[in-house]
Write a structure and sequence with these properties.
The protein is mainly β and 232 residues long. 5% of the residues lie in helices and 51% in strands. It contains 2 helices and 18 strands. The model has no long low-confidence stretch (mean pLDDT 90).
């Protein structure tokens, strides 16, 4: 049944909440500027960048039977995190709960009255439970099955000076001893708790949709990639 959502890993049914209406699966709006040019029909479209989209507000319509749990529900449904909807399982959106949730009708003795939860979601849907990719041979190809570029977390095991090539990205690594992690979502390089940003020269890697080559020069026995596949 599609009568649930999960907020930060906890299913709403844990609190006695059922979903009567799921948010529709939507494609986010591309961020663009439209300019009317005198003497030219239509408008000139200027994109802000490749794969730049606006947030989406996704609304779940819910009901709860036990009004005595309102306080703990209110403490749970707040802030930011991840949300999974029953009509799109197997992945999640990064989101924030943005609306004031109105429980007034429920508290007046109408437990079957509905309330809504608005999730302001970042535009991409993230696949869950994706295994890490271990690359031991320079020149290996991996395929991004998503519909937009992925922001991977890449750990390079090796030492000395290394040049890492991931798709169209080239990263120079210097002074490596043991390993370095390139965290593209955070735009940080580290080993454990130690920052290694000073060892990195170049852009943090992206994995474009389709085939990407992974190659390197230097002493590297393996590269481990947490791919973070994303979809519209």
């Amino acid at each position: 049944m599609q009568d649930w959502f999960e907020w930060n890993g906890t299913r709403c049914t844990t609190y006695g909440i059922r979903v009567s209406e799921q948010p529709p699966i939507s494609i986010p709006a591309e961020r663009a500027t439209f300019t009317n040019v005198p003497g030219r029909p239509g408008s000139l479209t200027t994109l802000e960048g490749d794969d730049v989209y606006d947030d989406m507000v996704m609304t779940a319509t819910c009901f709860v039977q036990d009004a005595s749990r309102i306080a703990e529900i209110a403490a749970w449904l707040k802030g930011g995190g991840t949300v999974t909807f029953a009509n799109r399982p197997g992945g999640y959106y990064l989101a924030r709960i943005v609306n004031q949730i109105d429980f007034e009708k429920i508290l007046r003795g109408n437990p079957h009255r509905s309330f809504v939860v608005n999730f302001r979601c970042k535009p991409f849907w993230h696949a869950q439970n994706v295994s890490d990719i271990v690359v031991t041979t320079s020149g290996t190809f991996i395929t991004n099955p998503g519909s937009v570029y992925a922001e991977p977390i890449i750990t390079v095991y090796g030492s000395g000076t290394i040049t890492l090539m991931v798709g169209m990205s080239i990263v120079e690594l210097d002074g490596i001893s043991g390993s370095i992690t390139l965290d593209t979502p955070l735009m940080e390089a580290y080993q454990g708790q130690t920052s290694m940003n000073s060892c990195v020269n170049g852009d943090f890697p992206r994995l474009l949709p389709g085939v990407n080559a992974i190659s390197w020069t230097g002493s590297v026995p393996r590269v481990v990639i947490q791919p973070n596949w994303r979809y519209l």
